[in-house]
C-alpha cells in the first residue's frame, strides 16, 4: 500500500474518484427569508413599558416634577359632649288594650262609634236591647216592696209582743217566735235588694261605654246582630294611645351598666327611630326593667314610656331604640366621615400649612355623625373628603364646594 492510500479516509478509499460530485455541482444554500419590521413592534412596546415603570414608579418623580394640589373639604375639631347609647329593636306596646265582649244576651240596637275614632272614658259605644232586663228590674222592685211591708208588719207585731211580755200577758215562746220571724223578713228583704241590684247591673251592661281613653279599631258588629253573654268574640278593641310604651331587649352584659345608672336615681333617655334609622319618632324615658334574664337568648326586656303626643308610635310597630346610659363631656369631636381606618388603626389627615399629614387617632363613641377622638386638639383642621387621592404629605387646597367623602356621600365644607 502506497503512502497516499494510507492517508486517505475510508469513504475516499472505497469510493472511486470518478463517483464524487464536483464542488461546483453541489446544491446551493437557500437564501435567507426577509424579516418584516413589525415583528419588532412588541419588543419596542415592552421596552417602553419598562422604561415608564422605572421612571414613573410610585415614590419616584422626574426632576422638577411637582404634584398638583388635591382639593378637599375640611372639618374643625371642637370640644363638646356626646352620649353613649345602647341600640336595640323594640315593639310599640300600649299600656292598655281592651277587648270588650258582651256581658248580656240580646240584640244590638245601636253602634255609636266610628272606626278609628278616638274615644274617652265613659263615651257610649254600643246599645243592646234592654227591655227584658228592665222588666226584671220592675219585678225585683215589686218583690222588694212586698217583703219590706211584711217586715214592717212583723216589726210592729214584735213591738206589741214585747209590751205584752212585760205585763206577763203572753208566754216567752210567742215573743221569741216573733223575733225570729222579723229576722227572716229582714233576710228576705236583703235578698230582694241583691236581686234588684243584679238586674240593674244587667241593664247597665246593655249600654256599653268606653272604659279607657283610646282609639277604637275596626267595627266588628252592626245593629241587629245578636250577641251572647260571656262569648269569646270581641265586640270591639280599644287601644290606649297616650302614653305609649316600647318594649325592647338588651344583652345581659349591658344590664349592669343600666341598673347602675338607675340605682343612682338618674332618668335614662330612650329614643324611638323608624326601621331605616332615618327619622326619630319620639323621645321618652326608661320606665322599668324585667325581673329576669331570658336564659334562651341571654337578653333582658326593658320598657320605655313615651308621651306620644303626635301619635307617632302605633301599637305593635317595630322600631329601633337608642338608650342613653351616660353622657361624656369635654370630648374632642370631629365628623365620623373624617376618621379613616387602616385595619384596626384609625387615622385622620391633619391639614397644616396646606399639607395633609397622616395622624393616628383613637376613635371613641360615635353619635349623630360625630365621633369622639383622642390624638388631636380642639381647633385642628382635618380633611373630610378626597381620601382616595390623599397621601401623607400631599398638598391640598380647601374647596368650598361639597366633594364626595369616603362613604360616597357629599361632605359639607
Task: Give an overview of the whole structure.
The protein is α+β, with helices and mostly antiparallel strands. The protein has three domains: 70-81 and 329-411, conserved putative lor/sdh protein from methanococcus maripaludis s2 fold; 85-94 and 239-328, Efflux pump adaptor protein, beta barrel domain (Elongation Factor Tu (Ef-tu), domain 3), CATH 2.40.30; 101-235, no CATH class. It has helices spanning 3-6, 10-14, 41-55, 131-166, 172-205, 255-263; strands at residues 70-72, 74-76, 78-94, 97-100, 106-111, 118-119, 124-128, 207-209, 214-216, 226-227, 236-239, 244-251, 269-273, 280-289, 299-306, 318-335, 340-342, 345-352, 355-367, 370-374, 381-383, 396-398, 403-404, 410-411. The strands form six sheets. Strands 3-12-15-14-13-16 form a six-stranded antiparallel beta barrel. A hairpin with a 6-residue loop joins β13 and β14 (280-289). α4 runs antiparallel to α5. The longest helix is centred in the middle third of the chain and has 36 residues, at 131-166. The radius of gyration is 50 Å and the shape is elongated.
Q: Can you lay out the helices and strands and say which pair or pack?
A:
Layout: H1 3-6, H2 10-14, H3 41-55, E1 70-72, E2 74-76, E3 78-94, E4 97-100, E5 106-111, E6 118-119, E7 124-128, H4 131-166, H5 172-205, E8 207-209, E9 214-216, E10 226-227, E11 236-239, E12 244-251, H6 255-263, E13 269-273, E14 280-289, E15 299-306, E16 318-335, E17 340-342, E18 345-352, E19 355-367, E20 370-374, E21 381-383, E22 396-398, E23 403-404, E24 410-411
Parallel strand pairs: 1-22
Antiparallel strand pairs: 2-21, 3-12, 3-16, 4-11, 5-7, 5-10, 6-9, 7-8, 9-11, 12-15, 13-14, 13-16, 14-15, 16-20, 17-18, 18-19, 19-20, 23-24
Helix pairs in contact: 4-5
Amino acid at each position: 500500500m502506497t503512502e497516499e492510500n494510507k492517508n486517505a479516509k475510508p469513504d475516499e478509499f472505497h469510493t472511486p474518484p470518478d463517483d464524487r460530485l464536483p464542488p461546483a455541482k453541489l446544491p446551493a444554500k437557500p437564501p435567507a427569508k426577509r424579516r418584516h419590521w413589525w415583528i419588532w413592534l412588541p419588543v419596542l412596546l415592552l421596552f417602553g413599558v419598562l422604561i415608564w415603570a422605572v421612571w414613573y414608579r410610585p415614590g419616584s418623580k422626574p426632576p422638577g416634577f411637582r404634584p398638583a394640589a388635591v382639593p378637599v373639604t375640611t372639618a374643625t375639631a371642637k370640644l363638646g359632649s356626646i352620649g353613649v347609647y345602647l341600640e336595640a329593636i323594640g315593639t310599640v306596646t300600649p299600656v292598655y288594650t281592651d277587648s270588650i265582649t258582651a256581658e248580656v244576651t240580646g240584640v244590638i240596637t245601636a253602634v255609636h262609634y266610628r272606626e278609628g275614632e278616638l274615644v274617652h272614658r265613659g263615651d257610649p259605644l254600643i246599645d243592646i236591647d234592654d227591655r227584658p232586663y228592665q222588666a226584671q228590674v220592675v219585678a225585683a222592685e215589686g218583690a222588694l216592696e212586698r217583703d219590706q211591708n211584711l217586715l214592717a208588719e212583723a216589726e210592729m207585731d214584735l213591738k206589741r209582743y214585747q209590751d205584752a211580755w212585760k205585763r206577763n200577758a203572753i208566754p216567752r215562746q210567742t215573743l221569741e217566735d216573733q223575733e225570729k220571724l222579723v229576722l227572716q223578713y229582714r233576710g228576705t228583704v236583703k235578698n230582694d235588694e241583691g236581686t234588684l241590684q243584679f238586674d240593674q247591673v244587667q241593664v247597665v251592661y246593655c249600654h256599653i261605654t268606653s272604659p279607657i281613653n283610646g282609639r277604637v279599631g275596626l267595627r266588628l258588629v252592626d245593629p241587629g246582630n245578636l250577641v251572647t253573654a260571656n262569648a269569646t268574640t270581641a265586640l270591639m278593641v280599644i287601644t290606649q294611645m297616650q302614653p305609649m310604651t316600647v318594649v325592647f331587649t338588651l344583652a345581659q352584659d349591658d344590664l349592669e351598666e343600666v341598673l347602675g345608672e338607675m340605682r343612682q336615681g338618674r332618668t335614662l333617655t330612650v329614643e324611638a327611630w323608624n326601621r331605616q334609622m332615618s327619622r326619630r319618632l319620639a323621645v321618652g324615658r326608661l320606665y322599668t326593667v324585667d325581673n329576669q334574664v331570658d336564659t334562651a337568648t341571654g337578653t333582658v326586656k326593658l320598657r320605655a314610656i313615651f308621651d306620644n303626643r303626635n301619635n307617632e308610635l302605633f301599637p305593635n310597630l317595630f322600631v329601633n331604640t337608642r338608650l342613653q346610659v351616660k353622657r361624656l363631656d369635654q370630648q374632642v369631636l370631629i365628623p365620623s366621615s373624617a376618621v379613616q381606618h387602616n385595619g384596626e388603626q384609625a387615622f385622620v389627615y391633619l391639614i397644616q400649612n396646606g399639607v395633609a399629614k397622616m395622624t393616628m387617632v383613637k376613635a371613641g363613641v360615635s353619635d349623630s355623625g360625630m365621633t369622639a377622638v383622642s390624638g388631636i386638639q380642639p381647633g385642628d383642621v382635618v380633611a373630610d373628603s378626597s381620601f382616595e387621592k390623599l397621601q401623607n404629605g400631599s398638598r391640598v387646597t380647601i374647596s368650598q364646594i361639597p366633594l364626595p367623602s369616603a362613604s360616597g356621600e357629599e361632605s359639607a365644607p
